[in-house]
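Kindly review this record before class:
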Amino acid sequence: MIVIPLQVVANIAQVVIDESGSYAQDWVTWKQVFLLDDVICCYAVLFPIMWTFKNLREAARTDGKAVVNLMKLTLFRQYYVVVICYIYFTRVVVYALETITSYKYLWTNVVAAEMATLAFYVFTGYNFKPEAHNPYFSVDDDDEEAASEQLKLEDDFEL
C-alpha cells in the first residue's frame, strides 16, 4: 500500500535532483539514494508476483484443474522474467549508460529506457488482452451446472 506513493515521491525527487544539476550539494548521494529507493520499491512490487507464482504452482499440484493452472503458471513465469529484465534494464543498465556515455550521446540512455518501457507495455498488453474465448476464465459445463443447481436450491437468492 505504501510502495506506490513512495515510488511517486522517489520519482518526483529524482526529477528535481536531475533538474538541479550536479552543482548542488550532495547531488550524487541523493541521486543514488533515490535510485536505491526506486529499486527497493520495484522489488517490493515483485513479491506479490512471486507469491502468485508459488500459489499457482501449489494449486497445480493439488487441484484437479492442472491444465488451466499450468497455463496460468507459464504465463506468470514469462511475466515474472520480463518484469525482472525490465527493472534490471531500466534501473541498472540505463544508469550505467548514463554514467559511461559522453555528453554528446547522453540522449541514448533516454531512448533505451523509453524503448524498454514500450516493449514492456506491448508485451503486457498482448499477453493480458481481453479475448472472447479466454482459457484463463473458462468455466467448465460441470461447474456451471453445479452453480445453477445451487442457485435453484437457494430460494432466498436476490440480486
